[in-house]
Amino acid sequence: MRFHFKTSYDHDIRLFPDGWTAAKYGALLLLAIALPFLIDDFFLGEATNVLIWAVAGLGLMLLTGQTGQVSLGHSAFMALGCYVCAILMQAGVPFVPAFVLAGVVTGVVGALIAIPALRLHGVYLAIATLALAILADDIIVLLARWTGGVNGMYAPPITILGYEFNRWTAPAAWYWMVLAVAVLVVLLYRNILRAPMGRAFAAVRDSEISAQAMGVDVARTKALAFGLSCAITGLGGALTGLFAGAFNNETFSFILAIQLVMMIVVGGLGFIQGAFLGAAVIAFLPQLLSMATDQLGRGVAIPGLEAGVFGGLLILFILFEPTGLWGRWLKIKAWFDLFPFARKDMFRRQKTYLKTERLR
Fold first, then answer.
1. Domains contained in the chain, number
2. 203-244 pLDDT, tens digit each
């Protein structure tokens, strides 16, 4: 077992708890960079898809996992980021500024929407954001002059420093570009958690009344969390549309928002690693189901199979493993660290709640 002796506040907020952890994540990054040389183009495309899902999931993770605000409408912000990026690129703006502006615009719109929406709590907030996701479909159709409506839009070509990034002719370059975005988003996320803003997010998540008593502006903190969450999700939406090549209103249906929620719950709510684990499940599970139906059903399609499996998986994790895959790994690791002194009920869920929450 490794012990971390903290002798200053800087030790508590450093990027990695120790050098060994930094070395492990450094080796993982090197493996990710070398991945195009180790696998074929099909699996490289799937790995790129996993990273795009992870970027979008990190946005929702910041809101739900760190601030405790449930949103079922983040597919709308993925659509906004995608269309803003594509429209700016068609207007002649280079990819990098258009991509950054797409995140900024999505974040500002998200923060403005959060001002009235975040007066709601729990299931009421979820219903309000779900309504936003459903409305996004109609808004895209109504704004057909700019969005293409049901006919959709084709993704403009991506050019950075004179080099064109084409998914089909240069899959490795596309993968490295998405990997760079994912690494930057992870660093941004991690530094937010280290800052006072991240501590305020956690305080609001655990108890709004206690946070307010400690001087945290709850309304401002929620709006900031919603805006930052939407900005990151908008970047994921822009990558989704550009990776698909063509997109319309059906690309960003509310089913996408449900998949985002499932991804962070299955991966591990509140953990950066959980977003990547959940993204792998979301990306590869449909492929596994397709191969299974081909083998067992001789190519016969089963209507609703994917949605049923996703829903059942989500229910099972909520009931039996609410900390997700990463939480389960941490429990296994702790059990081996404490062996033979680990107790059977060491990870039993606490069913009590703060008395201050009764005043909400």
1. 1
2. 998 888 888 888 888 888 999 999 999 999 999 999 999 998
